[in-house]
Design a protein that fits this description.
Blueprint: H1 2-40, E1 42-46, H2 53-60, H3 63-66, E2 71-75, H4 79-88, E3 93-97, H5 98-106, E4 111-116, E5 120-125, E6 141-144, H6 149-160, E7 169-172, H7 176-184, E8 190-194, H8 197-203, E9 207-214, E10 217-222, H9 223-226, H10 229-252, H11 258-265, H12 269-273, H13 288-299
Parallel strand pairs: 1-2, 1-3, 6-7, 6-8
Antiparallel strand pairs: 3-10, 4-10, 5-8, 5-9
C-alpha cells in the first residue's frame, strides 16, 4: 500500500513538471511576440481626463485595430509622468497642456504640437471652507501642478482680483485623483481641476468658483520619431481613427460611454451622468495665441 502511494506521488510530480515546462515555453513565446509587436507599435500616453475620451473610445472599441493601427495606449495619473515618458523617448505621442509642452520644448525636448483637445479647467473651492469668491483665497492652499496650465490659470485668477501671488499658497499635487480627493477631504481650500474630476468634486458639495472653459489641452508628439516613414503612415491612420471616435462620441453623447469614462477616469457613474454636454473636435492645430501666452508666462518664471 505504501509503495502505491509513492508511485502516485512520483506520477503527480512528473505530470506537474511537464505542465510547468510546457507553460513556460508558451509564456516565452507569448512574451517574445508581445515584445516584437511593441517595437513597431505607436505608443501614446493619456491622462484620466475627459479630453482623452476619443483615445479611450478608439482603443476600447478596437477602432485602431480594425483600421490596421497597432497602438499601445499607456495611461498615467498625472501629466508630469506622461511628460517624463515623452522626454525619455518611451512614448511617441502624449496628451499634455500647452504650458507644460512649451516648457519641455524650451528645454530642448524634440516635441511638436499635433492637435488641441477639448480640455476644460475649473477652480473648485472646498465647500467646508465657505470660499465664495476669489478674494477669499488669500492665505489659503490651492492645489495645482507647477509649470502647467493649472499653475498658469491659478496665477491669472489671483492677478485678476489683485491678490498677492505669495498670499495664495499654490501646492504642487500632480496626480489628478489625489488633488481632487484632498479637496473633498478638506485638506485644500481650492484646486484647479479638469473634467470629470471637477464635476465629481462639485457633486460632493464643493463650489465651482471659476470655469475657464475649453482651453490649453494638447496632443504632442516626438518630432524626431514621427519623421520616420513608418511613423508618418501611422500618424495618418491615427488622425483618421481619432476623428472617427470624435464623430461617434458627438453622435451618441458622452453618456453612451459612461462605463468607459468611469473605468479610465476613475469617477462615479453619477459624475458621468451630471457632466455637461461636450462637443468634441477633430484633430485641430493648436492656437498660436495659446502658445504665445504660455511662452510669455514661462519667460517670467
Amino acid at each position: 500500500m505504501r509503495k502505491n502511494y509513492i508511485v502516485i506521488i512520483i506520477l503527480f510530480a512528473v505530470v506537474a513538471l511537464v505542465v510547468w515546462m510546457c507553460s513556460g515555453d508558451n509564456s516565452e513565446e507569448t512574451n517574445a511576440s508581445k515584445g516584437k509587436g511593441s517595437e513597431t507599435a505607436l505608443k501614446v500616453g493619456s491622462t484620466p481626463t475627459l479630453d482623452c475620451l476619443p483615445l479611450f473610445v478608439a482603443y476600447d472599441d478596437s477602432m485602431f485595430f480594425s483600421n490596421g493601427l497597432d497602438i499601445r495606449l499607456v495611461e498615467y495619473q498625472s501629466e508630469i509622468d506622461c511628460d517624463t515618458a515623452l522626454v525619455g523617448g518611451s512614448l511617441d505621442m502624449g496628451v499634455s497642456n500647452v504650458v507644460r509642452a512649451q516648457r519641455l520644448i524650451r528645454k530642448r525636448t524634440p516635441l511638436t504640437f499635433f492637435s488641441s483637445t477639448n480640455r476644460r479647467y475649473s477652480l473648485v473651492t472646498c465647500g467646508g471652507s465657505r470660499i465664495k469668491k476669489l478674494t477669499d483665497l488669500n492665505g489659503k492652499l490651492v492645489g495645482i501642478a507647477r509649470f502647467s496650465a493649472s499653475d498658469f490659470l491659478a496665477e491669472r485668477s489671483i492677478d485678476s482680483v489683485k491678490l498677492s501671488r505669495t498670499g495664495v499658497y499654490r501646492v504642487q499635487i500632480n496626480d489628478y485623483g489625489i488633488r481632487m480627493r484632498m479637496l473633498i477631504n478638506n485638506e485644500l481650500e481650492g484646486a484647479l481641476l479638469t473634467e470629470p474630476q471637477a464635476t465629481e468634486a462639485v457633486n460632493l458639495n464643493n463650489v465651482r468658483c471659476v470655469d475657464y472653459g475649453d482651453c490649453l489641452g494638447v496632443i504632442v508628439m516626438r518630432g524626431d520619431k514621427m519623421q520616420k516613414p513608418q511613423k508618418k503612415s501611422q500618424l495618418e491612420l491615427f488622425k483618421k481613427v481619432y476623428d472617427m471616435a470624435v464623430d461617434s462620441i458627438n453622435k451618441n453623447g458622452i453618456g453612451h460611454y459612461r462605463n468607459c469614462i468611469m473605468q479610465h477616469c476613475h469617477v462615479k457613474g453619477s459624475t458621468v451622468d451630471s457632466l455637461r454636454t461636450v462637443r468634441f473636435t477633430h484633430i485641430t492645430p493648436v492656437d498660436c495665441r495659446a502658445i504665445d501666452a504660455a511662452q510669455n508666462w514661462l519667460n517670467k518664471h
